[in-house]
Write a structure and sequence with these properties.
Blueprint lengths: L2 H33 L5 H26 L3 H12 L3 H25 L5
Length: 114
């Protein structure tokens, strides 16, 4: 994995959890708006919107660089529209990055998969 691909995956991973948190907070704000006088939806909506757009941009870049199969790319996109999906995406991306580092070290040391 080259440095640009690793960077693209890292950016996507780093925006996944904040995007998920903002989605959950937006849902709470929506409920509070309808049950109380508290209305933070415009602010949280804007914050979540920016994070979601960043997620989609970083997702497209990671898909382009990693050459994921359509199924994998679709999974990461679907996780972005589920309220807690960003947490699962972050964990899966972290594992993918760790596996790539292990594979790169094995190649460097001349270890061949059996």
């Amino acid at each position: 994995m080259d440095i640009k691909t690793a960077t693209a995956l890292r950016r996507l991973r780093l925006v996944s959890a904040p995007e998920a948190v903002s989605f959950l907070i937006l849902l709470v704000c929506s409920v509070l708006k309808r049950t109380t006088d508290f209305d933070a939806v415009p602010v949280m909506g804007a914050i979540h919107g920016v994070l979601f757009v960043l997620y989609v941009i970083f997702w497209a870049d990671a898909w382009n660089r990693t050459k994921w199969p359509l199924k994998t790319a679709a999974l990461y996109f679907v996780l972005s529209v589920l309220p807690t999906g960003g947490f699962f995406a972050e964990r899966k991306l972290r594992r993918e990055a760790e596996d790539a580092v292990i594979a790169a070290r094995a190649r460097k040391e001349g270890v061949v998969n059996a």
